[in-house]
TrEMBL record:
The family this protein is said to belong to: Belongs to the complex I LYR family. SDHAF3 subfamily.
Function: Plays an essential role in the assembly of succinate dehydrogenase (SDH), an enzyme complex (also referred to as respiratory complex II) that is a component of both the tricarboxylic acid (TCA) cycle and the mitochondrial electron transport chain, and which couples the oxidation of succinate to fumarate with the reduction of ubiquinone (coenzyme Q) to ubiquinol. Promotes maturation of the iron-sulfur protein subunit of the SDH catalytic dimer, protecting it from the deleterious effects of oxidants. May act together with SDHAF1.
GO (cellular component) term, any one: mitochondrial intermembrane space
InterPro entries assigned: SDHAF3/Sdh7
Name of this protein: Succinate dehydrogenase assembly factor 3
Region Disordered, annotated ranges: 140-159
A biological process from GO: mitochondrial respiratory chain complex II assembly
């Protein structure tokens, strides 16, 4: 059993890295950037604004990066995101656009975040909380606000 594990481990570590296969799926930065902004057209207006702003800021921040490992990681992760948005909105296969539903983040993702990144995710969660309410939630919130105003008016004696 031990010899099998050693042989399996050595074959994995000695296998050549196939950058050609990896880069075949990657897009150059500018076409990827354009494709990302184009894919956001299928999103609701608020999500599109947030997504476009974030993409633009991230690409600006990494413009001067020279490390090839960082560049490949950056491009590959954005390509994964692009494929996911295209798949969820139906744009990859040329079908009509479907509403974007998103997906929950798994716990492994959160475990890999630095403290600063976790803080940014927390701030993003609070900044977007009120944007994505259903019409029923918005109506209930409006009714609560109206009742609150009426209660305040009664306390102060206003009609």
């Amino acid at each position: 059993m031990l010899a099998t594990l050693v042989r399996s481990a050595s074959s994995v570590s000695q296998a050549p890295l196939k950058l050609k296969d990896a880069s075949a799926q990657l897009l150059p930065p500018i076409p990827l950037y354009r494709a990302l902004l184009r894919s956001h057209r299928a999103l609701p207006e608020e999500m599109r604004y947030i997504g476009d702003s974030y993409v633009k800021a991230e690409f600006r921040r990494t413009r001067g990066t020279d490390n090839p490992i960082h560049i490949i990681g950056f491009l590959s992760q954005w390509k994964v995101y692009l494929d996911e948005v295209r798949g969820q909105t139906g744009r990859a296969s040329g079908k009509g656009a479907r509403p974007f539903s998103g997906r929950p983040l798994n716990t492994e993702f959160f475990e890999k975040l630095s403290d600063e990144q976790a803080g940014q995710m927390y701030e993003l969660m609070h900044a977007t909380r009120d944007i994505w309410k259903t019409p029923d939630e918005l109506e209930a919130q409006a009714v609560q606000q109206e009742e609150g105003v009426a209660t305040e008016d009664r306390k102060t004696g206003k009609e």
